[in-house]
Amino acid sequence: MAGPLPVGEPAPDDGLLPGSAAEGAADRAFGVYVHVPFCRVRCGYCDFNTYTAEELRGVRRTDYAGQAIEEIEASARVLEVSGVPSRETATVFFGGGTPTMLPADDLVAMLDAVRRTHGLAPGAEITTEANPDSVDAAYLAKLREGGFTRVSFGMQSAVPHVLATLERTHDPANVPRVVRWAREARLDVSLDLIYGTPGESLGDWERSLETVIAEAPDHVSAYALIVEEGTKLARQIRRGEVGTVSDDLQADMYELAEERLSAAGYSWYEVSNWADDAAHRSRHNLGYWRGDDWWGVGPGAHSHVGGVRWWNVKHPAAYAQRIASGVSPAAGREVLDAGARETERVLLRSRIAEGIPVATLTVDGRREVAGLIADGLVDAKAALAGELVLTVRGRLLADAVVRRITDA
């Protein structure tokens, strides 16, 4: 299970937001994230808020869709009473866990609740994550019929010994099959990879990239493995049962991903994400990086509206109890002041290819731009055009770039 929730102020039982949340809302997109906290087994590296059957303490998966729908319906009331202007939902993302452990009808029912309460914008992007072993052709067709537009398969690697270290149980041979089924259902396809697993060589990573490119997905995500405290993998490394991967090797892996994906026609639009064209960029994830608004549904889900962040109670049993009692499932929240919101804006926007308008930086931050160009961290041509955009080297050192333009 995931680590502790953030430290913040108590969230009110009615879930109402301060007046500041409404300021400028009409200019921000609105999305919904639905967290489905169930997994068949727990992968050794996983730090997400997920639960196997043995960890549910009497909670039934069959009840979950109804509980989430109650929160979705409550979200519309909370936003209205809080004075936040109504906006149609631009994106919906089902993550987890493994959302596709639930019947397709349950996912469609939750999506229908968003459609009924908030409305869906024309051309809304509707995504679910899926384990390659958790769906079949009929399941994917039912999702498409219900309004889903994208599926993101957690492939992670094409190499059996890497999957074994990660304790991923899916058969890599299933990936081409599920991609074909998704195509037949007219769903856009993303394949998600992890690099930097202990024991993974650069050749192993190259094999995974080649396998992905051969499937010609619309979108590719590639995330560096972060070993989180409290996970089984962290304990194995501490006991010396598995090794670690050097920062230099992870950097080589990232550069290889950029090289191979670019050559195959994919363009980066966020540090860990590439798409074959602008239409296939994940609009939901871009909403996070752009500082838009979203409501997170489910145990441990995080939300953000107008500089107000809050997070739900973690365990499905606690979540179910609060929903049944008619009180907000939020466990805590924070209201960001102007300084924190500006720092966060720079931190998030620096990660995307759209970049940051140089004119919006502080005077001291603008003075750093020339040095960042000289150090090969930002694109010189883009900077001269008024946008601060990271180079490949800059993406690897993104946190250092942010420190220089915010702490200058």
Automatic annotation (TrEMBL):
<dbReference type="InterPro" id="IPR013785">
    <property type="entry name" value="Aldolase_TIM"/>
</dbReference>
<dbReference type="InterPro" id="IPR004559">
    <property type="entry name" value="HemW-like"/>
</dbReference>
<dbReference type="Pfam" id="PF04055">
    <property type="entry name" value="Radical_SAM"/>
</dbReference>
<keyword id="KW-0349">Heme</keyword>
<dbReference type="GO" id="GO:0051539">
    <property type="term" value="F:4 iron, 4 sulfur cluster binding"/>
</dbReference>
<keyword id="KW-0004">4Fe-4S</keyword>
<dbReference type="GO" id="GO:0004109">
    <property type="term" value="F:coproporphyrinogen oxidase activity"/>
</dbReference>
<keyword id="KW-0408">Iron</keyword>
<protein>
    <recommendedName>
        <fullName>Heme chaperone HemW</fullName>
    </recommendedName>
</protein>
<dbReference type="InterPro" id="IPR006638">
    <property type="entry name" value="Elp3/MiaA/NifB-like_rSAM"/>
</dbReference>
<feature type="domain" description="Radical SAM core">
    <location>
        <begin position="24"/>
        <end position="267"/>
    </location>
</feature>
<dbReference type="GO" id="GO:0046872">
    <property type="term" value="F:metal ion binding"/>
</dbReference>
<keyword id="KW-0411">Iron-sulfur</keyword>
<keyword id="KW-0143">Chaperone</keyword>
<dbReference type="GO" id="GO:0006779">
    <property type="term" value="P:porphyrin-containing compound biosynthetic process"/>
</dbReference>
<dbReference type="InterPro" id="IPR058240">
    <property type="entry name" value="rSAM_sf"/>
</dbReference>
<dbReference type="GO" id="GO:0005737">
    <property type="term" value="C:cytoplasm"/>
</dbReference>
<comment type="similarity">
    <text>Belongs to the anaerobic coproporphyrinogen-III oxidase family. HemW subfamily.</text>
</comment>
<comment type="function">
    <text>Probably acts as a heme chaperone, transferring heme to an unknown acceptor. Binds one molecule of heme per monomer, possibly covalently. Binds 1 [4Fe-4S] cluster. The cluster is coordinated with 3 cysteines and an exchangeable S-adenosyl-L-methionine.</text>
</comment>
<dbReference type="InterPro" id="IPR007197">
    <property type="entry name" value="rSAM"/>
</dbReference>
<keyword id="KW-0479">Metal-binding</keyword>
<keyword id="KW-0963">Cytoplasm</keyword>
<keyword id="KW-0949">S-adenosyl-L-methionine</keyword>
<dbReference type="InterPro" id="IPR034505">
    <property type="entry name" value="Coproporphyrinogen-III_oxidase"/>
</dbReference>
